[in-house]
Amino acid sequence: MISDDQRKALIEEKFLFLYGSKPSVWVQAPGRVDLMGSHTDYNLGFVLIQAINHNTWIAARPRGDSIVRIASLNRDGIAEFDLSHIEHAKDVTWSDYVRGVADVLQKENYVLKGFDGLVHSTIPFGSGLSSSAALEVATTEVFESLADWQIDPLQKALLSQRAENEFVGMTCGVMDQYSSAMGKAGCVLLLDCRTNTSEIIPVAPGLQVMICDTRAERNLTGSEYPERRAQCEEGVRILSGFYPEVHSLRDATLEMLTAQQADIDPVVFKRCYFVIEENQRVLDLAAALASGDHQKAGRLAVESFQGARDLFEIVTKEMIMMFDAIMGAPGAFGTRGAGGGFGGCLVAFVRSDCIDSFTEYVKQQYTRNAGIQAEVYPVQSASGASVLAIE
Ligand code: ADP
Ligand code: MG
What we know:
The chain folds into 2 domains: 4-201 and 382-387, Ribosomal Protein S5, domain 2, CATH 3.30.230; 207-378, Alpha-Beta Plaits (2-Layer Sandwich), CATH 3.30.70.890. Strand 6 and strand 7 form a beta hairpin. The model has no long low-confidence stretch (mean pLDDT 97). The chain is 42% helix and 23% strand. The protein is an alpha+beta fold. Strands 1, 2, 3, 4, 5, 6, 7 and 12 form an 8-stranded mixed sheet that branches. A 4-stranded antiparallel sheet has the order 9-10-8-11. The protein is built from 11 helices and 12 strands. Adenosine-5'-diphosphate binds at residues 56, 72, 74-75, 94, 97, 119, 121, 125-132, 135, 339.
């Protein structure tokens, strides 16, 4: 991985080339991995998450007017917009994440200052490690560091989520932005997505979290995620007719669901079954990690993967090939898909003393079976967004 010094030099050089000066403000916001809790966040349940040591940096320099210019070392193009009149990007479409944050902050009456900015990220895009949330949270961090107001980290997460929901048009839950803003180094967070409060879960030693990236092209029409959400809502609509205390799938039990099976469309039934079980697995995994029951942690991950494959149907053939490679590898306790599914990374729980042999085996096996070069690497839990330097 690129060192901080190399990264700084790379950014400074490009910044000078683009804007003719040096940046004066540096911020970072991390990506995240969900250890458990697929599609439980918008069902107002629990997720077990950690911010990771792969992050997004933005280097910036205030301009003294209301213009924002933003470029990225990870993507082509330089976007320019006026804070007094924010429109969606016509080209450089990734800048919508930055525009969205500016738009939402201004709607909440935060006074913003224009800047020249350059983004650099070590989070792979669209792999389930939340590069979009890191970009949004880093953007709030830049605006805050240039202003004379402050926002607490939870507000940063919620406003960044709104930017993605309302401006970008992706109806994601809060967990990505929450981890990026609120992560704690050395810990995992058990987040309650109903109250937006979290508990810090200490992790017993001996278990290493590994990212196993399928690097497979995603073939999504864009309807898969909203479709799953709608199916969960449909389940709630029916269950709440029988059980008024059910306001979201978080409130439902498997007993309630199976008792009403005859009234529920079979696909909706499967989706709800998965979410209700997954929600319980989040709590069970938190307990297993805290007590050092690594075999149980692994079993829960495998059950999550199987449910995602058979009930929620968000697993691709490359994910299955990666699962098989991981489960045959030395030191593997278990694994599941990270993020929303449909490709991207698997997160594996591995014996801490087997990292190298695990990595070698998984890469070799997966590449042979899928014909795609896998990326396999350990991640450490990291702190949430912060200002790195103001010069
Ligand atoms: P994920 O959040 O899982 O990585 P998304 O599809 O939600 O996947 O977000 C990925 C998109 O976010 C990218 O395609 C790009 O538009 C934008 N993005 C994230 N980080 C950067 C960056 N460093 N530079 C430019 N665009 C970025
Ligand atoms: Mg995203």
